[in-house]
Amino acid sequence: MGAYDTMVAGLSGAGLALLGIITVHGTSEYHLNAAQMHDELRVSAETALADAGQNWAELTLKGQRATLTGSPPSVEAAEAARVAVLNSSGQGGILRGGIWSVDTQFSEIRPLPTASPYIWRAIKSPGGDIILVGSAPDENIKTALAAYASDLSGRAPDDRIELARGVPDGDWAEMARFGMEQLDLLDSGEARLTDYELRLSGIAMESTARIQATASVANLSDPWRGVPNIDGPSLWKAEHIDGTLVLSGSCETLEERAEIAEIAATYFDGPVVDQMTVSSSEHEQWIQGVRLGLPHFSQFENGEMEFQPEGQGFKFEGEATSSTLQFLREDMSQLESDYPVAIQAETVTVVLDEISDVDLGEDPLVACQTSFDLIMDANAVVFNLGSAEISRESGVTLDKINAVSEFCADNLMFEVGGHTDNSGDRAANITLSEARAQAVANYMAATGFDTARLIVQGYGPDQPKLDNATPEGRAANRRIEFKVQEWNE
Predict the structure, then answer these.
(1) pLDDT in tens, 45-82
(2) What is the CATH number of the domain that holds 378?
(3) Domain count along the chain
(4) I need a surface site. Which of 29, 38, 190, 377 has the fewest CB within 10 A?
């Protein structure tokens, strides 16, 4: 072998040795970095899922292949999770790229429920905690709203939002965010977004905050509507809390405090908690509103009655039967002062045990007539003696009449018939029976029933139900009846 060949051979050997060193070193480096690369891919993918609002998805990573499992709330959510993971670490590659395949092994995808009306609520407690309730269209918006609530309050909200379809067109998320921004000005309250209506209610101790929030909500642009209902501090309050009626605030004298507590104890069927104090104020004659309103508010299922001299005057919120609310309106209309009255309560439907076996869908007319007959056989509309004025003891019957009428088909009309016994002059009895039937129809109309579906008829003594020879028979003949018929335009 010549000197040249020896030199080449030596160089070749050295090169192979060097290559071996490089190869061994490179392999070692690869193995050392493989675990690190796997962790980086996993962290990137999990972060991408969280940023996309798809926290329901479970990630498994094998090399650069990802597998997603879980129960997606919608087809859109499933695809959003897949795309988020696929794009979480670049465009892919065998060694140094990102995730290059995503296998999905989801359980059954169920379509989101549709909410109508579409309601979202943010509730702020006096301590500053926020509760989120209602619907949101997707996980991204749900997460973003919760994050904004956290920024405002400085703590995580109690997030009870459920995903649902049916969100109104427009920037719904921005309107919900705006509602929370205005709610933040209040000491406590609620921002409620119902379809296109934003209602802001609550208490702002500072007048500047009340003015600012009221103006902002009242001046929303189409298609959004704002309803501000922001109060100042209450002078006096009654509140239903966990089965008790709590009285708080300030009274003018010890005698007035005792009188208010006695009214509550008389009309509320449960314990009354008296937290009232005594101190004079510049507001006069407001106790008359308590005398008129507290007996009815005591019958509410829940809610608050407040006297706000610098706000809405006497304010009623909560839930009650239609008769309770109607009698409350009638009595508060007698208030002899300049204090306004705001009744913002919801009507609750009474239970109709009498018609539990009636199939309202089989034959609408027959079922409706049967229901009215059963209700009126078991309950009576009572009138004050010799007059067409409905007695307040008829409240339960009136509530059931309203409830039955709502169950009946929209294409049905109702004849309200008044009947008397045969005592006295027949013509006078016919006049009285018609006036009493009209009083019932007027009550139904006052609670929102369509008067076009009502017919009033007075029959006097001409259609007795029982023999007038006995007191029991005469009592049964003094009655209100309903006859159901097809709509006749």
Answers:
(1) 888 888 887 888 899 988 888 998 988 877 778 888 88
(2) 3.30.1330.60
(3) 4
(4) 29
